[in-house]
Write a structure and sequence with these properties.
Layout: E1 6-11, E2 17-19, E3 30-32, E4 43-47, H1 48-51, H2 54-61, E5 65-67, H3 74-101, E6 110-114, E7 129-133, E8 154-161, E9 164-171, H4 176-181
Antiparallel strand pairs: 1-4, 1-5, 2-3, 6-7, 8-9
Length: 182
């Protein structure tokens, strides 16, 4: 049986790192002192097989441990480089996906608009102040909590105030002819 080559693993964190490569045997663990330890406890020599275990590979991919490339065989070094490259690409993709989903602060301004729902007095509007996200002001009518259920009765119309386009909300009302058709 050939002797496996030893690989140097270095702790990159400022604190002590303990890994249990085999979950079925928690008494068998690797302990790394903080990075830059004067006694050299931040570096451990392990077999290439142990360095390829899922726990150690995960620690390497998350930047907790680093492999000293010159201490491994070329085949294992290339395999680790490829795994690290794939992991970095996945992290970059995830960061881009998360960044794309974040609603930027400049589009979350709130406008205080008067509620356009009906008042208790005939022919008048409610007028209660309601908060509407500026980005959605043209997509939904400004209605207070009490009138929110009437949103389906309002349709947007476009008006021009000088050269500026404005959205105005108009309540649709069923006339006598429509009532007879039902």
């Amino acid at each position: 049986m050939p002797v496996s080559q030893l690989v140097a693993l270095r702790n990159l964190k400022r604190g002590v790192t303990v890994l249990t490569p085999d979950r079925s045997d928690p008494r068998n663990f690797l302990e790394f002192q903080a990075t830059g330890d004067s006694g050299g406890g931040d570096v451990q020599y392990v077999s290439e097989e142990l360095a390829a275990s899922p726990t150690v590979v995960k620690a390497i991919m998350h930047g907790i441990l680093a492999l000293e490339q010159d201490t491994m065989s070329p085949e294992v070094a290339e395999a680790f480089r490829q795994q690290l490259r794939v992991a970095q690409e996945q992290r970059d993709r995830s960061e881009k996906d998360v960044a794309a989903m974040i609603d930027r602060p400049d589009t979350r301004d709130l406008l205080g608009l008067d509620c356009i729902g009906p008042s208790e007095r005939a022919g008048q509007r409610c007028g209660s102040l309601t908060a509407v996200v500026e980005k959605k002001a043209e997509e939904q009518p400004p209605l207070c909590d009490r009138h929110q259920g009437l949103a389906h009765e309002y349709v947007p119309t476009e008006d021009f105030d000088g050269d500026k386009k404005r959205t105005r909300w108009v309540r649709t009302v069923m006339g006598a002819r429509e009532r007879q058709a039902q």
